[in-house]
Amino acid sequence: MNEGLMKVVALSGGVGGAKFVDGLSLNLPPEYLTTIVNIGDDFEHFGLKICPDVDTILYTLSGLANPFTGWGRDGETWTVMGAIEQMGGPAWFHLGDHDVAWHMLRTHLMINGMTLSETIEYFCGKYGIKIKVIPASNDAVPTMVHTKDQGVLGFQEYFVRCQFEPPVNEFVFANIQESRPAPGVLEALRDADLVLIGPSNPFVSIFPILNIPGIQEAITDKVVVAVSPIKQGKSYRGPAAKIFREMGMESSSASVANLYRGIIQGIVIDNADSSMRREIERWGIMVFETDITMDSVGKRKTLALDVIEFGKFIQKMMR
Amino acid sequence: MNEGLMKVVALSGGVGGAKFVDGLSLNLPPEYLTTIVNIGDDFEHFGLKICPDVDTILYTLSGLANPFTGWGRDGETWTVMGAIEQMGGPAWFHLGDHDVAWHMLRTHLMINGMTLSETIEYFCGKYGIKIKVIPASNDAVPTMVHTKDQGVLGFQEYFVRCQFEPPVNEFVFANIQESRPAPGVLEALRDADLVLIGPSNPFVSIFPILNIPGIQEAITDKVVVAVSPIKQGKSYRGPAAKIFREMGMESSSASVANLYRGIIQGIVIDNADSSMRREIERWGIMVFETDITMDSVGKRKTLALDVIEFGKFIQKMMR
User: What's the pTM?
Assistant: First the structure.
C-alpha cells in the first residue's frame, strides 16, 4: 500500500451513488478504486437487457451522462421512443436512441456468451473508464416490490411506471439466496482498506448488494463508512424518504445509520442533520458532518475526499 | 362470389413479392386479397425478433417503404445503428431507427403473449392495411444455408452479412416438418379462386412456404399461377440467378416453371423470355408474356391486373 493511499471499494446504486463514485475517482488512482453496483433494478424490456444503475455509473464515469437529470445521456435523441409511442407501444420507460443502442449491444454481447461483468468491462474499455466497475452479481436478483394495494410489481414498474406512488410493504430480492457475487467482488472487498456505502437508497440499492451471500461476511472486519442519502428528512432524488415512512421509520440520517448498525463504523451526514449526531454515536457509529449535496463536480470531489479522510481517521482510531 | 371478382391468395417473399402484392391490392377489394408471407428469413438480432419479408410487405402496403431500396423505411434515420457501430457492435444488418422501434414493439408484443400473426394484425390496424397479411407459420422455420466452403449460415448472415457470396449446396428449413400453417392460411387457400406465387426467389422465399405441412395439399385443386422473378437470366434483385446456377440449373424463367411443375398451371414471364414459351408449355404449363418489371406503381398495378386476368382465363379453360 502506498503511503497514505487506501484501497477503496464503494457500493453503489444509481444517480447519487454514481456521482459519489465519480467524486472518488477524482481523488484516487484508478487501481485503488472499485465500485460494486446494484443489479436489483435490472430488467428486460422490449427483449433488451437493461441495467439502470450500472448504466448510470458507466455514463457518469465516462462523461456521457446527462448532467441535468443524472440518468440517461447528454445530447440524447428520441426517435425510437417517439416511434414506439406513435405505434401505441409502451413509452413509460424513457429510452433515448443512444440508450437503445447501448442496451441492444449489451443484449447482443450476452446472447453471444458474455456475462454482465464482461459487458461492463467491454463498455469500460470503449469509454476509457479505468476504475473497476463490477456488478454485485452476474445472476439476476430482481427486486420485487410488494405493494399495499397493487400486488407485486417489478422494480422499474414501481419506480418509473408508477412513479413510486404505491405504498410498499416489502422489497423481495428474488433468487438472492441462490445468487453468487460476481467474479472479483469478494476479492475486492477482502483487499479493501476502506469500504464505502454510497448515498444510495438502502432498501432498493444497497440491501440488494449486501444480501447476496458472502458479501456481508467479506466486510465484517473492514472499516465501513456510509454516506447518508437523506438530508433534513428528504432524499435528494427518488423515493428513499417515502419508503422510510412506509417501513414505519422516520426519514432521517439517523434511520439510515440505524439500518446499517452492525455493518458500518462511521456515517457521513449533512451539517443540517447535526442534531442526530448524539443518537447515532450512542450506537457506536462515528459521525462526520459536512455538506453532502453534490450539485457540482467540485463538490463531488470534495465530499469524496472528506469521506476517504474520515475512513482513514476511523482506521487509525481502531488500531 | 361477385361477378368477375376472384378471391386471390398470393404467396410472397420480400421486395419483389411486396411490390406485386401492392399491385394486387390496387386491383382488388381488400376482402378479396390475402397474402401468405415467407418467414424462413426471420431471425433474432440484438435480442429483437426481426421478420424482413413480413416487414417489407407491411412497409410497402402502408406506404412506409423506402421506394428506392424496396426494403427499409422512407425518411429513415440511423442514430442507433451509428451508435452501435461506434461502440464496436455488429453493423452488418442495417436497422434504421424506425425499424428498431418496430422490432422492439413486435418483440414486446410477443413477449407479452401475442403470436406473430397477431402482431401483424396489430401493425395492419395501426397503418390502415386492409388486406389480410398472414405469416406462413407462427412457428420458427429458419432457413439454414449449407454453403460449399463456409459451413452452415443463418439466412441473414448469408444474405446480408456475406452478401450471398458463399456458394450454396442446399437450403434447409429447420423445424419445418414440425411446423403448422398459421391460423387462416389453410382456410384462405381453400377459399381461394386463384393462388398466385409472387415474383420471389423460389428457393428461399417460396419453398419455405410450400414445404410447411398442409400447404401444398390445400392448393392441389386450385388454379395456381406464378410470376417469374427472372428476366433474361437475371433476377431484378438478390441472389436468385446465382442460386439457380449453384443448384446446377440454368438461371431462366423456364427453370422457374420447371421448379414449380406439378404445382402451377400457368406462369407469367417477361416478353424478353418469349423464346422459352414452347419449352414451358410442353410441361403443361400455360404462359403469359408481358413486361414483368415493376419500377413504378402504375406498372405494379398493370402487371397484377394482367396476372389476375390470366388466372381467370386458365380457370375458364379448365372448366
Answer: 0.93
